[in-house]
Structure formats: C-alpha cells, structure tokens
Specification:
Order of helices and strands of chain A: HHHHHHHHHHHE
Distance between the termini of chain B: 12 Å
Order of helices and strands of chain B: EHEHEHEHEH
Number of helices of chain B: 5
Strand order of the largest sheet of chain B: 2-1-3-4-5
Number of strands of chain A: 1
CATH architecture of chain B: 3-Layer(aba) Sandwich
Structural class of chain A: mainly alpha
Helix content of chain B: 40-55%
Strand content of chain B: 15-25%
Radius of gyration of chain B: 13 Å
Radius of gyration of chain A: 70 Å
Low-confidence stretches of chain B: none
CATH superfamily of chain B: Response regulator
Shape of chain B: globular
Oligomer: heterodimer
Mean pLDDT of chain A: 76
Largest interface: A-B, 38 and 36 residues
Low-confidence stretches of chain A: 1-15, 71-80, 425-451
Amino acid sequence: MNGPFSFNLPTSGRMTSWSRWWLWAAVGMAVSLMWTVAFVPWWAALGSGLCAVLTLTVLAFYARKQDETTPRAGEEVLEGHDAKQVLEQVDALMSPSKDIEQIPQVDEVLQSMAADNQRRRVDDLMRRWVDVGQRYAEAALVLRREIQSVIKQTEQATGTIASSFEAVINKATIQARQAMELLEGTQGAASDGVPQSLKDFIQVSDERLNKMADEVVRVADLSVNMVRELDGVQNRTQAIDGFLLDVEKLAEQTSLLALNAEIEAARVGEHGRGFSVVATEVRRLSKRSHEFSDRIRVHLKEVRTGLSKTHGDMRTLSAADMEHALKIKDDVIALTRSLEGKNREVAETVSRINAISKEIAQDVQNVVVSLQFQDITSQKLSGMLEPMDELRSTLYHLMQETVNLDKGLFKNLPGSENWLSHMHDDPAAEVEVKLTKNPEQDLRKVHGATGSGPAVELF
Amino acid sequence: MATILTVDDTASMRQMISFTLSSVGHEVIQACDGHEALMLLKGKKVDLVIADINMPNMDGITLVKSLREQADYKFTPILVLTTESQESKRQQGKVAGATGWIVKPFNPEQLLNVVKKVLG
C-alpha cells in the first residue's frame, strides 16, 4: 500500500476488516445506483454514484489508519538480545492467548486475523533470534582465533626481543669490561720498580728528574767553590810576586855589598886577594839569585794566566749548568702537571663508566620485569577463551531448543539445521587451541588477576 | 655455582630466568612443562628447581608432588614462580612441598636474593 489512493484489493491472507467492509459497501452502492438509472437522468445517477464513492473512500482511508496505528503486541521483545528473555517471550506468544479465551463469543474473522498476526510475528521473531544467534556464534569463533593469533604473535615477538636484549647486554658487558681493563691498566700498581700505571710513571720520572736536577745544582755549587778556591790561589801568587821582589832587592844589596868588599880588598893589596875572590863569588851568587827570581816570576806569570783562564771557564760553566738545571726542572714540573691532568681525566672516565654500568644494570632489571608481562597477558587472554567457549555452547543449546520448539516454524529458515551443526562442531574452533586442563583456573585467571599476598614467600 | 632447572611453558619466561641466573654464574637448564622436567631430572641432579604452575601436560603442583616422592629430590629447594597469587593456591603449593612462592613478574635482584637464600 503506497498511498491513500491505491485501492487495490489486499493480498490474500492479509485481508483486513476495513478492506472487506469497503468491498461489500461498494458492491451494494453500485447495485442501488444502477437501479435508479431508469428513473433519473443518467448524469444525476453518475453524480450520486461519484459522491457515494468519495464518501466511501474517505471512510475506508480512516478505517485503514486506525488499523495501522494499533500497536502490535510483542514487537518490542526483540529490543533486548538476552536469550532467556527472548525464549520467555516466545513461550508466551506460543501459548494460547488468554484474551481470546476470555471472549467466548469472538468473531470468526477477528480470531483468524489475530492468529494470523501472531504467527507472522513469531515467524519474524524466530528469524531475528536465529540470525542473532548465528552472528554471535560466528563472532565468538572469530574472537577465539584472533586471541590465539595475538598470543602467538606476542610470544614470538617477545622471544625475539628477549634474545636480542640478551645479546645486547652481553656485548655491553664485554665492552665495559674491556674499557675498564684498559683504563685500570693506567691506574694499576708498580711492580719490580717498573711503573705499571701512568700515575706511577709520573711519580718515578718526577723523582728521577728531580734527582738529576739536584745533581746538576750540586755540580754548579762545586764549580762556584772551585772558582772561589782559584781566587785564593791567585792571591797567593801575588804574594809570591811580593816575596820575589824582596828576594831581588836582597840580591841587589848583596851584590852592592860584595862590590864594596871587592874595592876594600883591592885597597889592602896582596893580603886582600883571598877576600877579593870571596867577594866576587858572593857577587856571582847574588846575580844568579836575581836570575832565579826572574825565571820564577816568568813561570809564576804563566801560572797566573792559566789560573785566570780556568777561573773564567769555571765561572761560565757553573752559570750555564745552573741555568740548564733550572730549565729542566721547570720542564719536568710542567710535564708532570700535564700528565697528572690526563690521569685525573682517566680516573673520571673510569668512574663514569662505573656509573653507566650501574644504570644499565637497573635498566636490565626493568626490561626483565616488563618482558614477563607477555606471559601474564598471554595467560589472561587464554583465560578468556574458556568463557567464550561457554558462551558458544550456551548459544548452541538455546538454538537447539528453539529448533525443537517447533520444527514447523523453521521450515522457512534458510539452512538452519546446517549452520547449527556447523556451529557445534566447527573443526576450526579446536585447531591450535591450547586449553588448560582446568577451566576454573582460566576463569580465575581472568577474574582473580588482582590477587592478594606477598610477591615472594618462603614456606 | 649451582645448577638450576627452570620449568615454564613460555619461552620468554625461561629466557628471562636463565638470563638473570646466568648473570651471576649459575648453570641453568630449561624444561617447557612438568613432564619434560621429570625426564630431564632423571639423568641429572640439580640444586634448585624454579617452576611455573599453569602448564600443559603436567602442571607445577603435580611436578612438586612428584619430585618430593623421589629420594633424590626430597630436600631439594623448589621455588614456584607464577601469576597465581591467591592464598588457596599458595596453600596448595605449600602442602605439595614447595619451598617458596614468587608472583610474576619477578624482579631480577629479588629472584637472585631468594635463590641465594634457599641455596644456603
């Protein structure tokens, strides 16, 4: 029925009160109008007929509206999908209507119409109920497969992560150990006087270079002493010069005395000859004494020249030594400082590596704890499979009961028996299913995941 | 260092236990369920067993009971490492003869401390 002006006769089995009534009225009206044609002009009869048809149409339309707005009992039942509720409603509908029983004088037409209505509704209800059951059963199967796939995939992924993590940690451990060995080598203790570490090397070289510098300073001091001694020797030679002058003076006086003695001896004459010989010898000795004195002075001069040269050399030497020694000492101090700086850096690096190793150890603990959640979630997911299987089983039994309720009702349902058996014994459902022996355990795992008690307990 | 058997049906759990224990020098052997554990223990003596509860083929409680029936394993420490934390389960483990109960996830340091304690 598409609109108010479509007056096609209702389809069989759906003949309602208003349509039947309209049909009979129209036929009666037509017959009475045909009879009047003989007495009134044809156009008057046609006009009356059209008026009558219009009135009837309005009445029929009103009657149909009334019929449509009457609520159909039981339609709202399917709003909720609770299986038990639906079954109760179906039972209620299938039982003979009390209302109909209570009215003994019910019109035959109305009774047949009510029965027809009910049958149609139950039919529709069943169709929808079976559809819902089927879809839920299918969804449960899909969920089961998905859960199993998730469990498997996370297990594989976690396995790979765990292996890689282990490899990384092992390599990091080796790396840290080698770095520490390398660095600790520069921090180690000396053995057999040979420096093993940078620290010892610095200490030993510092000691030795200091010793050398001290030696150089000592040598320079000695040189200064020697210069001072040489000065003393030079003063002594000057004193010798003075003594030589005295000797020469003495020789000259002796020579003059001898000359006087010779003159006196010549005056005495013959008696004085012997004395004259002695005087001549004395003069000769005096002369030789002078000569000796001269030769000594020459030698002494050479000695003084030599001494003076040595004195200069010694002075230069001691100054140069001192300067050199001081420079070496400064260099050694600078070098030592620099090496000490490097050594401190090494020590700092070692402590940093130690700190990082500790941090890594903490991170490792966190990762080990986190990776275990794969096992925990897998167990929880496995625990979900059991209630889901129970749901499928319940659905199956409900469907079975529905089918047994009235086999006739299901003749119109497409392949209901087929999918019901499929639902119960789906081979895919049991493939790769790892159910624990105790389903209660699985349920508890789902519900009792947040249990009480200490994390570790020794009995 | 000790030889320790870890029994768990999850590979990553076995890996984590093995990783943690070998880091301090223990030798660790692995079994994926109670049945395999019993087979392994026939040929080898271990100092400690760490077992899960929920496993296919043979669960942890049954394994503990079976081990306690053997003369060799009457006094060997057996630690249960499981997601189960209910008091009833703990009691079941205690009665079966388990030495201790550790709830997953374990903390490596904590596990090493417990292992050290039970190994004496």
